[in-house]
Design goal:
The protein is mainly α. It has helices spanning 3-11, 15-20, 29-119, 138-145, 148-154, 185-200, and strands at residues 161-165, 169-173, 179-182.
Length: 201
């Protein structure tokens, strides 16, 4: 056998030897797949945990904002109620003051007119008598008008005198000289029906 033939024979690979040596990475496949699945599960859990934390923070923040909003609304409601009360009180005070000033002015005017009417007997150029009537506020005029029915009942009662005093006080003087004063038209009417109308009837 030649030297070249021997070299080729020695260089030929042994099939049994090749079959005994495992291929590179052949046994790492299942382990790598298991590790990959474990990493995926961990990532999913981390994402789920982050999601829950984020939702909880959103809920806490929303609840805090809602409480703050309710507190501000309650504060605004209290401030508005206080402002309305102050305005109502101020309006009532101004109305009372205006009514008092108006009534005082009319009382002075009434006193002046009465004094002028009693001092002289004013007449027109034709000799007609001038009648002077006091000027009342709308509220006082309404109160005095409420006694109209009672005054009509008293007109037919003999021996009974009556008069409407300022601002709206009905005074009744009985035949025996006793005087009775009323500020309520209903009470005055009941008194006339019980004590005056029966005597006149």
């Amino acid at each position: 056998m030649s030297s070249s033939s021997r070299k080729k024979a020695s260089a030929a690979p042994d099939p049994k030897a090749n079959s005994a040596i495992p291929a590179k990475g052949a046994g790492a496949g299942p382990l790598a797949a298991s590790a990959a699945r474990g990493d995926e599960t961990a990532i999913l859990r981390a994402i789920q945990s982050l999601r829950e934390d984020l939702l909880k923070k959103i809920d806490d923040n929303a609840e805090m904002q809602f409480k703050e909003l309710r507190r501000e609304i309650s504060q605004l409601r209290d401030e508005l109620r206080s402002a309305v009360d102050r305005v109502s009180s101020r309006t009532k005070s101004l109305e009372d003051r205006s009514e008092d000033l108006e009534a005082r002015s009319r009382r002075e005017k009434e006193a002046t007119l009465r004094k002028a009417a009693t001092a002289t007997d004013p007449t027109t150029s034709h000799g007609d008598r001038i009648r002077v009537f006091p000027d009342y506020t709308q509220a006082v005029a309404k109160q005095r008008a409420a006694f109209r029915d009672v005054k009509g009942m008293l007109r037919g009662c003999d021996g009974v005198k009556y008069g409407l005093w300022y601002p709206s006080v009905l005074r009744i003087t009985m035949a025996d000289g006793k005087r009775h004063s009323f500020t309520d038209p209903g009470e005055a009417k009941d008194f006339v029906l019980r004590n005056v109308a029966k005597q006149s009837g």
